[in-house]
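Box 4.2: Ligand-aware structure prediction
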Amino acid sequence: MILETKRLILRDWDENDIDDLVEGLNNIEVSKWLAYVPHPFTKEDAERWIRYCMHLTEKGMDRTAFEFAIELKSENKVIGGISLSNINKLHGTAGGGIWINAGYHGQGYGTEAFGKRIEFAFDVLKLRRLENGFFPGNEASFRMQEKFGYKIEGLGRKKFVCLADGQIKDECITGLLKEEWIRRVLSGDYNEDIQHGGSMSIDVLYKEFSGLETPR
Ligand SMILES: CC(C)(COP(=O)(O)OP(=O)(O)OC[C@H]1O[C@@H](n2cnc3c(N)ncnc32)[C@H](O)[C@@H]1OP(=O)(O)O)[C@@H](O)C(=O)NCCC(=O)NCCS
């Protein structure tokens, strides 16, 4: 499976990606925001992950998860990973996640990949609702999701033991409906938000749901 954007190729993982995968995920500043990535992240961890992804690939389109390597065209390098997981065709829903190598943050690659993943979910797989989330304090993830119309729907209290740092973390649960995405993308709002950023305050929303100040 291959998806393409202006600067990126989203494609299946293979054995040649092991070094880029370790480079990207063996960084606590990335993995502390992810639930299932241990730290340090070793070559063996990467091999195991890629074996799992190749197994998924064998199932073709009829699978419950897609795991894409994010390849930067200009460098022929994998700079991140993005997924669509827990696909439920009956209910038309899926979850997923994303990470970008810290050396490539802040250049719009996350937004570019995330937008393509949403398009794939709604346009190709014909899903109608996507669920995501982020750990409180993850401003970049929240901003990226907000651009596409994701809304905070609740708080999963003490939901994960983050493998990277062993901390028990809350999760701000977010969701996007197809009609919201269509409204956002097909209207000028989307472009305006891409340029100027969103407007909601993550700290205020977290406090509203949890009664707590955002952990720093
Ligand atoms: C979240 C992540 C994928 C975003 O990727 P990215 O390529 O850096 O994101 P973009 O460059 O597309 O920027 C997305 C938005 O977040 C904003 N942003 C980026 N870093 C930020 C920060 N530290 N604080 C506040 N906003 C930030 C950007 O300014 C941009 O918004 P804007 O266009 O309104 O200015 C990346 O930061 C990452 O991999 N983080 C670690 C893993 C992670 O958090 N994954 C998601 C788990 S839910």
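In the box above, the bound molecule is coenzyme A. The radius of gyration is 17 Å.
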